[in-house]
Amino acid sequence: MSLDPLQSPDVLDVLDVLVVGGGPVGLASAIEARLQHLSVAVVEPRDGPIDKACGEGLMPSALRSLAALGVEVPGRPFVGIRYLDGRREAQARFRAGPGRGVRRTSLQAALSRRADELGVERLRAQVRTVDQGREVVTAAGRSARWLIAADGLHSGVRRGLGLQGIEESRRGTARYGLRRHFSVAPWSDYVEVHWSPQAEAYATPIADDLVGVAVLTRAGTAYDEALQAFPALLARLRGAAPVTDVRGAGPLRQRVTSVRQGRVLLVGDAAGYVDALTGEGLATGFASARAAVHSLAAGQPQRYGPAWARETRRSRMLTTGLLALTRHERPRSLLVPVAARLPAGFAAAVDLLA
Q: Which of 153, 199, 303, 325 is the most exposed place for a label (fewest CB within 10 A)?
């Protein structure tokens, strides 16, 4: 079952694809489906642009994915990544071109406009159950041949289908992300990653008068308390007014037993998450959305699992390795000095992430 990208999907009783989750990855999935001539609807209970804790730095690969979808986003370019620990620093430029800092709400609005242009149906509803049959899957009163779950870090679809993996039980290892924006001119064309013994802070240029500061830390740490570990960053923010409330997300580590069950495919954070340490969440989310839709458009849903593994393997391995390394005080303290002494190696690592 298919339709022209400019034809309304309302004429069909059974959709090709039902997307659960109206965030950036859900909307990207819906846009990709329309570009593949599939009928699609997005189920999302919230109205308007959805904000969440996010570093808001789009890597060059994420920008390429958006361009392929016909989506242009505002924001401020950044040329690479800089690591700092208060004494030393290491920086590397992207060889693939700049990334872009963009407000999460602005990104969502741009994706939403593109989805509307392509005639994506919207359902404002909460998905409480997913019912699978031999030929269709039904959620929120709408039936489709396939369902793509893009409902985020704490995916209700994933849990409802029993695909949630067993979490680590080690005390103190759970990590959370906290983010706030400050009214100040960016002082750097890089995303700065400030390191302390227990946490990292990410300063991302968002606009000519706006910087987003996200902190990755352990559970129970307040945002202002976490910032005290970064005196150089605090000096940059002195006198800058916070213009948004603190938003949080976590625990970040989410395991899944499978990224597909029957007619349901998990994409983005719903398909599992390691950590925000490398800043690739949206890039890998868009890649997983593309892989899911292309497998369905080809009539080969069994291809999605291997394609997801292939698209996300590099990110998962790098993030897991870096996270394991920086859990221990001694290697964590050496990370920035070693990166500064081996600039070519640091540049190669940054390019792998870009």
A: 325
